[in-house]
From TrEMBL:
Organism: uncultured Gemmatimonadaceae bacterium
Signal peptide: 1-20
Protein name as annotated: Leishmanolysin
Assigned keywords, A-Z: Signal
Record's compositionally biased regions (Polar residues): 31-42
Coiled-coil regions listed: none
Lineage: Bacteria, Pseudomonadati, Gemmatimonadota, Gemmatimonadia, Gemmatimonadales
Region (Disordered) residue spans: 23-66
Length: 342
């Protein structure tokens, strides 16, 4: 599939200013030697929504807009090899099989630096989401791996623009262990709203910072029941501290589902990490039109789950799990939102 480039896409409706300049860090990981993908932000609670008058939702879609499907467009801010671009494109294709409905396009200008450093200004039309990809030097090999998150939301309070950054020094390690693609898909999920938009102008997460934190969206609950769970709110991670906690599906319940806080498997013990009907349902609860079949997945038996916090084989990075960590500060972004003049 040939994906349109950002030359025909661009800005607007709501700015999640806490966006993606958070570190993806190895520090504080719960499993020895694992990578802790953390994210920080400036978000605070509240609902102050100042207008951005440089972009508007299109009442009539431009001819360049593909209205028959959901489109993820990448803007490669720095030179990126065709081989690496192909990995990002394949990751987007996984999400485009789950999110299938078109979103309103937006035309306008996105000023520089509104979503952290490194992203230049952009003018044009966005259909349906624009993600800046920045492969850059952060801190050398190890420690900070990268960052990702939403920056602007559309009229439906769904992500319009987001950013993904990766430390170029760490990419060979991810590529060597065969996990770069899964990391991209996971981080793209946070750009699209998993864990980051659950309580953004909606109330889909309850019990935040308690042992019983859960996702209460009807479609996700239906998906949870279909993969072997009960018809109860979906368990959200309640352990491992700020970042992993409150922002992912619960590892002790879901194990290898891709949107838990841990990427399961390794070169020595490869495992698939699917996007389940639970994740697909949660996207519909956010407001996306999603395809419920998603990827093949069933809840594992409790005896089959290997909790990352109890893993002791972390000496070899290639044989450990990656800990995805999204800070709670990014989840409370109401006060940082900007909306375009409708």
């Amino acid at each position: 599939m040939v994906r349109r480039t950002a030359a025909v896409a661009a800005l607007a409706l709501s700015s999640l200013a806490a966006c993606a300049d958070a570190p993806v860090s190895a520090d504080g990981a719960t499993s020895p030697g694992s990578l802790n993908l953390s994210k920080s932000g400036n978000g605070k609670s509240g609902d102050n929504v100042p207008e951005v008058k440089t972009a508007k939702t299109n009442k009539k879609e431009p001819g360049s807009v593909d209205r028959g499907r959901y489109n993820i467009t990448f803007r490669y801010v720095v030179p990126t090899s065709p081989e690496r671009q192909a990995v990002f494109e394949a990751a987007a294709a996984r999400w485009e099989k789950i999110i299938i409905g078109d979103e309103p396009s937006v035309t306008g200008t996105l000023p520089t630096q509104l979503c952290g450093g490194g992203a230049p200004a952009f003018t044009g039309t966005i259909d349906d989401v624009l993600i800046d990809v920045i492969l850059t030097n952060i801190d050398g090999r190890g420690r900070i791996l990268g960052s990702a998150g939403p920056c602007f939301a559309n009229a439906n309070n769904l992500t319009l623009h987001g950013t993904m950054r990766f430390d170029i020094a760490d990419l060979p390690t991810l590529e060597a262990r065969g996990t770069f693609d899964e990391v991209i898909v996971h981080e793209m999920g946070h750009v699209l709203g998993v864990g980051t938009l659950w309580n953004f102008r909606r109330a889909l997460r309850i019990g935040t910072n308690t042992p019983n934190v859960a996702f209460v969206g009807e479609k996700a609950i239906t998906g949870y029941n279909s993969v072997g769970g009960a018809k109860i709110p979906v368990p959200v991670e309640n352990m491992f501290g700020p970042g992993t906690q409150n922002a992912h599906w619960r590892e002790s319940t879901f194990d290898n589902e891709l949107m838990t806080g841990f990427l399961n498997g390794s070169l020595a013990n490869p495992r698939e990490n699917p996007l389940s009907r639970v994740t697909a349902g949660s996207m519909r609860d956010l407001g996306y039109r999603s395809a419920m079949p998603a990827e093949q997945y069933k809840l594992p038996e409790a005896s089959q789950i290997r909790g990352s916090a109890n893993s002791s084989n972390g000496a070899n990075l290639a044989d450990t799990e990656i800990d995805f960590n999204v800070s709670e500060e990014l989840l409370e972004v109401q006060a940082t939102v900007q909306r375009a003049d409708p």
